[in-house]
Amino acid sequence: MICWSCEKEGGPGPFCSACKAVLPPEAGEDRFAVLGLPRKFEVDLGAAERAYKDLSRQLHPDRFAKADSRARKAALARTVEINDAWRTVKEPIKRAEYLLELAGFGLAGDDRQGGSETAASKKVAAAPAFLVEILELREALGEAQQAGDTVKVAFLAEGMRGRAAEAMKTIAAALEGERFEEGARALVALRYYQRFLDEVAAHEERSLSGGEHG
């Protein structure tokens, strides 16, 4: 990238290697590289957080309040970039989604803004048998909740937490081995497990709220 200030090759990183002016983000730079990390699922979160905080201090827009307008815009754009990078890297699920996106894999039905599904992605969906099984488990959960069977609810929730933990292990191993489709399928399953557990938590919250007002 040519530096806007000295018109020399700026080099890698947020600052020009020649004049130290802040440079705007480069198109296509992945979020791992922004924090100086290798593109992989297993990351050193301590190092990532230190890099994030260090860059945040160096690029905080307040430091450029009286600078050239191009420097202010570049600092603001860099701040947005490093915030996005940290939000992605620090959360295992977001990190997995992003790695799959970079590898060209999306999750079928993932039309959320910022989700991993793109027009060019290979979309991975849950198997029909899996969906039937999840539906049956959710029906069992609903019946147990309606009957006030807290033991059954706890049993179902514990089983689902175990499945979620195993899915996370599968995702980590698959992404480390670049078995992206396997990782995507495990991530699809994990989303269903989390929705199940969210239902359990929501029911418990409603029950507690009703008890307080009862």
Shape label: elongated
CATH class label of the largest domain: Mainly Alpha
Helix content: 55-70%
Fraction in beta strands: under 5%
CATH fold type of the largest domain: Monooxygenase
Mean pLDDT across the residues is 88
CATH architecture of the largest domain: Up-down Bundle
CATH homologous superfamily assignment of the largest domain: HscB, C-terminal domain
- Biggest sheet descriptor: 2 strands, parallel
| Separation of the first and last Cα atoms | 65 Å
Low-confidence runs of at least 5 consecutive residues: 112-119
Overall number of domains: 2
Order of helices and strands: HHHHEEHHH
Can you count the helices? 7
Widest beta sheet: strand line-up: 1-2
Structural Rg: 23 Å
Structural class: mainly alpha
Number of strands: 2
Task: Describe the fold and architecture.
The chain is mainly α. It folds into 2 domains: 1-90, DnaJ domain (Helix Hairpins, Orthogonal Bundle); 123-213, Monooxygenase (Up-down Bundle), CATH 1.20.1280.20. It is built from 7 helices and 2 strands, in the order ααααββααα. The chain has helices at residues 31-34, 45-59, 69-90, 92-102, 128-147, 150-176, 180-213, and strands at residues 105-107, 122-124. A two-stranded parallel ribbon has the order 1-2. Helix 3 (69-90) crosses helix 4 and helix 4 (92-102) crosses helix 6 (150-176). The longest helix is centred in the last third of the chain and has 34 residues, at 180-213. The chain is elongated, with a radius of gyration of 23 Å. The chain starts with 30 loop residues before the first helix and ends with a helix.
